[in-house]
Design a protein that fits this description.
5 helices; 111 residues; mainly alpha; two-stranded parallel sheet; globular
Length: 111
């Protein structure tokens, strides 16, 4: 997995330096690509437990609401509720370059 992370970081670095992409642009392109692929086969529900008060995140939240995507501030704690309600889960909280201690899912309210 380290080789994949290193390769992805190298690609990002090239996009930043040689092609002058911003972090926001790359995040938008990656998110859009995933969203298009997911929306073709599923009806998305967004799990958004913490809402930072930043213009980018406020706009994304408004866009989700405008497209009638349900937004949850909590995630069901019982496994059967998750499997009965959702057939596909995408972890889009952190990018590949996230470093740190992973918290127990129960501590964040995710099951």
């Amino acid at each position: 997995m380290d080789r994949i992370n290193t390769e992805a970081q190298n690609i990002d670095q090239e996009l930043f330096t040689e092609y002058a992409f911003s972090v926001d642009q790359l995040m938008e392109l990656a998110g859009y690509s995933c969203a298009v692929a997911i929306a073709k086969g599923y009806k998305p529900t967004i799990f958004y437990p913490k809402r930072p008060s930043k213009p980018l995140f406020d706009a994304l939240y408004q866009q989700c609401e405008g497209m009638d995507m349900p937004v949850l501030s909590f995630f069901p704690s019982e496994a059967h509720l998750i499997t009965d309600s959702y057939n596909f889960i995408v972890d889009a909280l952190f990018g590949f370059s996230f470093k740190g201690v992973q918290q127990d899912a129960q501590e964040d309210g995710a099951a």
